[in-house]
Amino acid sequence: MRTLRAACTGLCLLGAALAPVACADGAASAASPASALTVSAPASGPTIPDGFVGLSMEFRGLAAYVGTDPRAVDPAFEQLVRDIAPGQRPVLRIGGDSTDWTWWPVAHMARPPGVKYDLTPGYLAVAHSLAQTLDARMIMGINLEANSQAVAGAEARAFVDRLGRRAVSALEIGNEPELYGSFSWYKTPSGQHVDGRPHGYDLPAFISDFTRMARAMPNVALSGPDSGSPHWLPQLGTFLDREPRVGLVSLHAYPLKHCVATNVVTEAELLADSATHGLAARVAPYIDTAARHHVPARIDEINAVSCGGARGVSDTFGSALWSLDALFELARTGVGGVNVHTVPGTINEILGPSFTGGHWQISVHPEYYGLVMFAQAAPAGSRLLALTGAQTVGVKTWATLAHDRTLRVTLINKHVRQGETVRLRLLSGYGQASVEQLRAPSVTATSGITLGGQSFGSETSTGTLAGPSQTSTLAPAGSTYVVHLPAASATLLVLPHS
Known about the structure:
Low-confidence stretches: 2-31
Radius of gyration: 22 Å
Largest sheet: 8 strands, parallel, barrel
Distance between the termini: 47 Å
Helix content: 10-25%
Strand content: 15-25%
Mean pLDDT: 92
């Protein structure tokens, strides 16, 4: 994510102007007539991969989230990672802007002028402890903007040697290189801004740089182009044709742009289908390109709003409904996973850490609840099912089928004041459903969010939902389930196979 450097067209692969959404209704009204949907036969869609949902953070974010003592890594953060990848090997990405501002010090070499952060053995000991405890797969950013094989190679070897080959899933060379020729990498003592590359730096120049740096890398998977540029990504096939060592295609996606004051974003835009379905439609061609080259793809940096987020949008309950729907839409493209970017102290943080009196506390922001509900609704190994019938505008319905034939149906009502009713006709062999809801006082609420009646509260020291569980049951009439959806809410039906 470019923050100060991101008035960027580069982040706006998915940042086109969005039309207001019909579901941001202005006044309360009676629920519309029930829509009728039928769940199709099994095995009709992509399988949810292990570790589909993960987190992305900046290099400095690691210490903020887990501390500096490898023997006392923050247990709340570890549990919050498990909550979105239960029983799985989670994928964590450390990179972002700070990829090109960080280095592993090289003997007899001066610190590159754009570097602001030195990696240390202690830092990597903490990262190793976190990876070991979670059995995590780590995507680690490698400084490309320094334009030095010595810098890139030393950093890569430190990651592999100190984290271990099992932990290092991929080495990601550079971060949003499409911006190197447009935004300054550092400022001289006299105040002159110096770009990381010449103006007009393009994909062929990046490929040349990538190839040089790849020669200095250990024998592990490399990741790239780590871009969200609508100008570069249509040439993704060229990059993959020329770079046989790429083992992971990494993409960035932000549906809404808020990099300068004139970029005003609204809750209605966040809830619009263009911010979820439209986002997935723009990414899908690049997922397909990666698949044709037999290389997995991952959106390893995503959030609702770029450049640190927007107050009153990024930090509201609407972001939970957005993240839940966006994850389903992206899963439908066949992408291998998604890493939600969180930066402590910004509006976009989904987890806010603090360490006082020798104890960790983490404030859990609304968007994270959408990730947890997705993890419950689409467990690893389950398959997306197709639905037929007309869906009500502003209501999204998703269904998954697990290995044990448990059927899960998720319904998201994005109407902010209007309840809806959906009639679901399901596969045979199912009876009573358990029902859980994701709720908040309003779509603009920043607190009071509950999932199945439970909450992380204002802060959590355990990383687990607390409070009495509030679930209900729903029996069908024949094979039809009539589901009533409160305004601005999500509902999960879980139906074991009988």
